[in-house]
Sequence to fold (404 residues):
Amino acid sequence: EQLGVEPEEEAGRDEEEDAAQAMERAEAGEAGGSPGAPGPEEPGGLTWLVPEGSSSSRVIAHVDLDCFYAQVEMISNPELKGKPLGVQQKYLVVTCNYEARKLGVKKLMNVRDAKEKCPQLVLVNGEDLTRYREMSYKVTELLEEFSPVVERLGFDENFVDLTEMVEKRLQQLQSDELSALTVSGHVYNNQCIGYKTAKRLEALGISSVHDLQTFSPKILEKELGISVAQRIQKLSFGEDTSPVTPSGPPQSFSEEDSFKKCSSEVEAKNKIEELLASLLNRVCQDGRKPHTIRLTIRRYSSENHCSRESRQCPIPSHVIQKLGTGNCDVMTPMVDILMKLFRNMVNVKMPFHLTLLSVCLCNLKVLNTAKKGTIDYYLTPSLSTTSQSGKRSFKMKDSHMEDF
DNA sequence: TGGGGTTAT
DNA sequence: ATAACCC
Fold:
């Protein structure tokens, strides 16, 4: 109830709206578009008309929480409200509230720079994502009450397909009310998409959405591959038929830690144990069981900073079975596996310098309660084509079918 | 740049 | 297993 959403793009405007208020408005069938939205007269603003009476048009709400981590912290500790607040991970201020932004603090700013800009800045440590993750899923579950078709993007964004809800509202309207309805929208800005692709587009002389609209499709296909080329060119016209895909429960659980230097095997083992311990708690709460474990490292290097290496392997079935049960020691065999993966990547007889370790548990499956060979076994959704966790239901991929 | 996530190849 | 994308 207390979480504010960004009314429109993160433009730093002051009007804020409650998540609950926003959904009330959506439920009332009111058209979106806040008063402060960039209009068509603004540079880079394009306008389109929603085809009248079009049966194929959809209504999708995009709910974007405002400086999410900072909001969670201010709810946890109301004394922080009204003060400039930054959330710190290592030496970075990863996000901050609007008080802090007014004073010049930016997202992903150095702590040193931030303190220089804003000496009164209050910092809280946000390296443990537990509370953020929990609040994030609470928001998703709230939205799922309006429509089950909710797709998550990160911890702070949700897309809700409201098409059905809106269609029902429209059916209730009288014809004069219906003809009085108008809907309009806008394009926020004129920049092209992800970092890598943007660089490649720039090399082709494409720097704006309009450039992309008018570029030769054939050359674009040769340059980016048919799939990406066709998709992004349609996007440049505002055409996106991709469905809102219900996220359901997470596909993976991971914990990572970055640091200046890790250069010994014991050091690595200690860090890995910490990461794994947290993960086991999370996976235990979830109820499903991971069948794959992955270790990821980042090696120190002046260039190529984003590159990571990983090794993964199946979790032995006898370890999987111990997972839910509290009394058995599941740490020891799993740490053993992780250290084998570690030595597979890192030659421990040679000097090494790592700056990140990450452990991931994935390939999650629901418990196999049905006995093999029985009718129940073949009728249990998780063992045929679908899988369940709690009240969520989701399609399972063919790649998860090895056991079958 | 942190500490997460997803999908495509 | 990696690379790209998202937050």
Observations:
- Residues 64, 68, 152-157, 193-197, 228, 294, 307-312 of chain A lie near DNA strand C (CB under 10 Å from a C1').
- The two ends of chain A are 44 Å apart (CA to CA).
- The longest helix of chain A spans residues 265-286.
- The CA atoms of residues 95 and 107 of chain A lie 5 Å apart.
